[in-house]
Amino acid sequence: MTLSFHYDKDWRFQALVFRVSPGVSAVTNQTRRAAILRAALALVFAASTALLLKIGSLWMAGVIGLMTAYYLLDLAFKVWTFDHLARHVLRQLARGWRRKAPRSVSLTFDEDGIREIDGGIESRCPWAEVLSFSRSQGLISIALGNGQLAWVPTVRLSAGSSSARDLVTLLEQRGIRAS
After folding, report:
1. Distances in Å between the alpha carbon of 73 and those of 66, 83, 101, 139, 166?
2. Burial of 119 by CB count in 10 Å (0-12 exposed, 13-18 middle, 19+ buried)?
3. DSSP 126-143
4. Residue 113, by phi and psi: left (phi above 0), alpha (psi -120 to 50) or beta?
5. pTM above 0.85, yes or no
6. pLDDT in tens, 31-85
7. Alpha carbons 177 and 15: distance in angstroms, whole number
8. For 13-25, how does the pLDDT look when each residue is reduced to its tens digit (9 = 90+)?
């Protein structure tokens, strides 16, 4: 069975791939983890202040209270800065993607493997080099043995393309596991 997929690689495609890429979620998770650690540290300082007030050392409680306030302000500033920076980077990426001229991409899945023609450059990958595939919102990504990914945007296919369901069936018949 031969399947063909055709789509335009434009800024919409780049945005779709960017949203599902592992780098975005790693940055988000790292930021959340840092914010949680800072908040925990601020709570420890606040608890220490309360304990010192109970004991009666007003001077030490004031110092720890100031340190707690500093950490809370630092946390709020860093979260705001990161959010602002992330929005700025996303705007710049979208502006850059919109400037690029769209390219036509054609993917063919046949008995020999995968053949991709992207802007006049042809690439081939035998079935033995196909490691796994995954589905996400509007996109099927296929992991290849050389560390690259083949993308099939299921929501942006041209007329005459095969269906995404047929592709998943073909990959499963070939013994390629979903990840």
Report:
1. 10, 15, 44, 40, 54
2. exposed
3. EGGGEEEEEEETTEEEEE
4. left
5. no
6. 777 777 777 777 777 777 777 777 777 777 777 778 878 877 887 787 777 777 7
7. 26
8. 777 777 666 666 6
